[in-house]
# Entry
Amino acid sequence: MKFKYVPVLAAVLLLGSSGCEKDFLDTKIDIYATPVTIATDRATLFSFANAFYASLPYGFTSLDNNLFAAASDEAQQTTVYNTNAQIFNQGGLNSNSIVMSSGSGTYKSLYDGIRAANFFLDYSKAWRSFIALNRDTVSDPTGYNKDKLFMGWYRGEAHIARAYYYSELAKRYGGVHLITQTLQQSDNIQVAKAGYDEVVNFIVSEVDKYKDSLQADWKTSSYSDQDGRFTQGAALAIKSRVLLYAASPLHNTTNDIEKWKAAAAAANDVIKLNHYSLDASYGAYFIANNTLTSSETIFAVRRPADNAPETRNYPISTPGGSSGVTPSHNLVSDYEYIGTPDAADPYKNRDPRLSASIVTNGSSWNGRTIDESAGGTDDMRKANTSKTGYYLKKFLTDNLNLVQGGTALHHWAIFRYAEILLNYAEAMNEAYGPDGLPSGYTLTARQALQMVRARASSSLPAVTITSVSAFRDVVKHERRIELAFEDHRYWDLLRWKDAETVLNQPIQGVSVTKSATGAFSYQVFNAATRVFKSSMYYYPFSQSEIVNSNGLLVQNPGY
Amino acid sequence: MNKRYILRGILVSTVLGLVTGRLMARSGDGLTKGDSSSINRVHSEEVEPGRFFNLKKVNSPAAVSSISGEEMYKTPSVNLANTLLGRLPGLTIKQVSGEPVGTQNLGDVTLMGIRGRGSYGYTGNQGYNTYKIFVDGFETNINYFADLSPAEIESVSVLKDAAALATFGMRGANGVIWVITKRGKIAKSSVQFQTRTGMQRAVNINKPLGSYDYANLYNQAISNDNGGIWTPKYANAQLQAYNNGTGINVNWYDQVLKRSAPYTDADLIFSGGDSTAKYNVVLDYANQQGLYDVPNGDATSNIMLKRYNLRTNLDFKMFKIFEARVDLGGRIEDRKMPNISTGDLWNNMARYPSNIYNVKDTVGGLDNWSGTALYPNNPLASVNALGWSSRHYRILQGNFGLKENLSFITPGLYLQETFSFNSYTASSYNKTATYARYFNGLTTTTDKTSPIAAGSQDPAGQEDWKQAAVTIGYERQFGDHHLKTAVNYHQSDYRGDGGVYSFKYHYQNLSGRANYTYKDRYIAEFGFSYFGADAYAPGNQWGFYPALSAAWIISNESFLQNSPIVSSLKLRASAGKTGSSDAFGDQNGRFLYQQYYYNGSNTGSFYTGNAGPTYANVLNPVYIANSDVFAEKSMKYNMGADLTLLKVLDINLDIFLDKRSNILTIDNSFMDAFGYNTIFKNLGKVTNKGIEATAAYSDKTGALGYSIFGTVSFAKNKIDYMAEVPPAYSYNSYTGRPIGTPVGLIATGFYQLSDFNANGSLKSGIPVPQFGAVQPGDIKYQDLNNDNKIDQTDVTSLGKPAYPELTYSFGANISYKGFDLSTFLQGTHGSTVDILSGSTVTTQALVNNGNVYEIAKGAWAYYPDQGIDTRATATYPRLTTVGNTNNYTASSFWIKSGDFLKIRNIELGYTFATRLINSVGLNKVRIYINAVNPVTWSPLLKDYNMDPEALTGYPGLKSINAGFSVTF
# Structure
């Protein structure tokens, strides 16, 4: 029976050929980087150093894929496809609002950024040996030395990025969980949330500790292609804004003067750098690439050219436009006159920042004269035209051909020098009065304010009032005008505790009629009602976050 | 004997169901081996296909339903899955489209699901196609299966319970379709030729309204958008022109489609064998032409499939101890279609209004294809002026087996080695052209007319699947004890090479089963699988899956043995564990133990530099790796009874429970503050339970034979746990509801004029929708949480999921002398269709420059000066041209019943009397005509003119066919 052994042989052959291959079940094809591949690739360290920037809020997509302005009294959202602006406008903020989970600068995306920064800090601890991997550091040290330099900056930036994300969280939520290491699966959050002051102290200490390890200014360095990363100026600007907020009535209930002094000192630190100055042209500064080249910019988020802001905010009567965020008459009426008011044209002789920021009836925009009267090019009775009689102009490049896919650059300045001057004016006034000038300071509150006003127009009336409280109102007014649509207004109203007064006022618009002679006349009307509840001084944490925290996260009051 | 088998095949194919097969058998033909059953039944000679070895049906404790190839042949279709419709209890089938597969695979055209949905983890295609398919013992995929010809098939079985699935380990949780191809038998050589041809038509096409209705409704819509002020776009003269036929009025469906398209197939089958060699050779040809009215030539092509199948199954006996088998099943598929994607073409036909332009632009004596910037893709030009594209598939499954009879060691012992190679390559080739778009004598786009040009031949995918198995088996009878057992090692290497086709799937499976029968009354079976999959971390790849089952043949007990009433009765029960290594996600849930970083971010991107900023590479985790990730687990329990009464009534009943756990799910219990908190864990739980029942009654009076039969399959599931993001209110949740439950707002009617203040705002007390301002005629919703707002916290279940709870079929057969007549109906109950998301083009009238359908005629409108007032009768919200989030959001308004009942088959045949044809040298001749899918009853079809199985795109088909079969 010689065949007797054949089956046995066949079985052995089969099992031996592949079955007993130890790695038969190892089929993994890695299409992404793994811990192994990143450990042997120096470039990955630099990619991780970029990763913590990805959560920077890009103000053009903050709310309903548009400016955050529609949440405040600056503007009214036109499109019917919005739910988030309405949540703010109608006092609907609650722990189930989807506003917290969509758009730029939200809770989750900020914490994703914090994790990326924590990860980089943990991961790059051994950076010295890492950047020496696979290269000759002795005979050809150029690349190595450059990496060494960068790594020093990048580690500082990770601290600052994390501090910035916490400042954005604190602005919205007050106290939050302070997480300063890369959490592993096993250690889901086990500490209680930190108080607001604790978060502020953390931010300030991080800025103080790491500001000197940052690049002074990428733009003027020999690595200008890296511009867009944090700098000393940006770090100090974060501190300035954070301390200003911390000194404000919402967080400084006892009006502790020391807090204002700290805020003034922080703004002064930026001014003392003597590195930034106001741009010559207020209007042009926000357009296209000017934001990046101007010495007014302290920190800006860059994007390639697109036309999304124009698509969303051009008048609906411009092909491709959809009206979007339309400025309120409440805002328009706050622009000062620089000459005698003209009864026939209310938009004449106004602070030039009005025409730089807002499209008014009868002005030229998108290659036509805007005519919102009945039968005009932008007849307000047509669907999806402006609810207020105004259109957004700030940031937008005029006359892009949207149908043909025309594009322009849109960079979002997170910090610019004018804000620092206004931070300074506000804090100095509270700490030392409009004209106080303690030693170590070179500007009074009034002088700083005047710098901002003078840039806008030499014809603006001089600010002469002398009381602290009157000057306070002037600064508030100046911030409203100067920083319009830049995502300051809503938060300013909150920290001043003015929101309940201001954000319960109706949004006004103007209706336009044209006489037989072609002259326009304007009638102010209430375009929309607004509701602001006292609970809304802070965002609510989402319900799922509360549930998932197992009692460690206490909901903000009123929700 | 050989002829008898073929004869039997023909006989069986003349009537529906095994029932008639049995009827014929009982009528004295001596054909008792009726494994061609479409319905489970206890019949002593029937064989139940199973893994490693078949059992007599009566000896099986498992829940398996089977159908023969002959039975499947009754439905003419290029897609084998279509032939199973309604025939197998526990198998739910959905015919999504009748497209003769341009770029789609057949597996995506007809969907199959076994015993409802057991898991939300791996969703397959709409919850279907989650099972595994094995052909002749080796795993293949749905696309290999769907292109087999019924002539190649001996039987298809659905393995449903733990007993039947015991040996499948991580391949078993979602059921297995077990296919056996035809083999030669010891018999005289025979040749059979069968062919049929038919005309196929669309079951239903929901055509849009003509220009006159379109323009009238557009006027309403634009006026609604203008705040309810009558501002028509189309003036009366224009409307008049549309009405009297002088205006442009093009129905794109009528332009592109023809009424019917031919289908043909033919088989030539050689079969025979003796004690040393057996063979069965099948040659099959199928040709399905599409519905486009376009010639097949050098420059244009209908959508079509031509397929050539060849299968050779050979068995040899050598040297007493060896049995060898060689099976080669190959095919070539030629798929050809106009050079536009089927989806785009059908979407354009549905979306382009009737009045946009005439087919040809003849202004100025020109003869050019019309087209505009807004509607650039003239549907008729799309099939005539773009050329064609084709795909060419070559597929071969080769199985080789060697079995050694080891009776010289101990009687009944054998060893078997089998290998399988399954290889697939596809290439694409096309000839393309383009055309200039004209309107009013002017070109409107940048396209220029170009002559037809040949493209290059490109690879379109290649895969191969190498499998090997070794089995040691043992079967023996000792007195009253009968033991049948086998242990098997199986390994599978499935891979695709090159670029985007690159992947590898490996698994190893050591499994076995042992069936023990005592006195033909008591049966116990044990099965197991020790299964290793490559998806998991080394050291965590193997799982053990045991199953136990038992049966009791009560009718063999003395007290029932000679019962005049109970002809046979068997009770079955099984319990066991299976698994699934399939999961959702890009990589089918594989390698989640491995931490990966990708160049991208959850939150945004980063650019640097000051002149045209440059993108900065970033690295972020794809997810947070979890080294414990493992296969989904399924505990299956089944109880069944098979009963025959009075020898004419067969009843089968199965009750099952499937408890799923360890479903791979994102753990939403991690706080967002964790950062990048996407973590997969085995934590989901689902309970799925159901019933399958069949009944068949058959009898014979003189020359008249008749039977009726019916089957019902019911399955209902509930998500027990899925780590859902905590919902605001319990009624918002998915947990606790069936998988795929539609969730949305509850519509309560339309806003009326009286609901609004003079300034257009809603009166106080009426809940305010958070989707934007509403106006009269918009859909009103229920404010479930009474916060006076309509938002996402008011959503709740809107009814049953799209996957039907209940599928049923029934039919009847009559035979009289040579004639036979059969009918077969199939339907579903307990499902919904979301017509909003299912057919946006139809339901969102005029939005985004869209079209209007009959449904929009019921729109709410109030223009008293124009004599329009539908306030009281409206069945559709007010029209708009710009869209409306409030109306076009998931709500009960758009959820409709998906129930339907279709006549799937009616067939009339005649079999010539044996004595007549024997004289001319033939053994068997049968001619027949049949109608497939001739009638559909469905509320959705009645009310909205939509086929619930195929809402949009290439429609389902019905056909009338004629054919004949000759055996020499």
